[in-house]
Structure formats: C-alpha cells, structure tokens
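Exercise 7b. Backbone tokens:
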C-alpha cells in the first residue's frame, strides 16, 4: 500500500499533516452525521469561513478557509460607456466592416435587408 493517506485537508491552501487531516475529517464526519448537509454549520462552530469536501489526486480533500476566498477571476473591464473593453489587439480598435452588401448567392442576407 502507499505511504499516502486517502484523507487530506488544507487550511487556506496549506496542506495539513496526515494526523491533523485525519482528526479534522473525523470531527467533520461526526458533525455531518448529526447535521446532515450542514457544512456551513461545522465551519461556523469551528471558526472557519467555509469547509468544502472534495476529491483531488485520488484523495478525499477537506478544503478549509479561515478568510474570504479571493475572487475566482477579476470582473471584466469596462470602457467609459459601460461596455466591455475590447479583447486582445494590444489596444487596437476593432476592425471595421465596409458596409458593402454581401453578393447574392453567398447564403448570407445583405446588411440592412430582411430575409423573407
């Protein structure tokens, strides 16, 4: 068998030693047996912001946060008009369309005309 335990835990991204991880899992499991589905209650009782069980690299992982998690990704930038800023192009303005109608037979309706 492997040296690695099947149970792991981390607090604010720092992995816990095996013994502490097993102890945390034991307490979490007991609480969840008595309070089915109330991981938030376990977190509150233990002074954590959140506790999330997950599975990673073949191990059951208990992810504990003691502070608010950083945002997943920053909100999109907006220009002065409130529209999303253009992506890529290193600050170049978006390509302009010529405004010329599409030739007949191309399968696309000409700009400004309704298809019937």
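Sequence design result:
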């Amino acid at each position: 068998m492997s040296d690695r335990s099947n149970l792991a835990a981390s607090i604010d991204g720092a992995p816990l030693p095996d013994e502490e991880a097993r102890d945390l899992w034991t307490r979490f499991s007991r609480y969840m047996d008595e309070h089915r589905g109330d991981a938030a209650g376990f977190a509150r009782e233990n002074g954590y912001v959140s506790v999330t069980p997950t599975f990673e690299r073949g191990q059951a992982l208990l992810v504990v946060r003691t502070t608010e998690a950083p945002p997943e990704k920053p909100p999109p930038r907006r220009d002065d008009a409130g529209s999303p800023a253009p992506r890529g192009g290193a600050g170049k303005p978006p390509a302009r369309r010529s405004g010329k109608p599409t030739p007949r037979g191309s399968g696309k309706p000409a700009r400004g005309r309704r298809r019937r």
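Instructor comment: The helical segments are 18-34, 39-45. The two ends are 70 Å apart (CA to CA).
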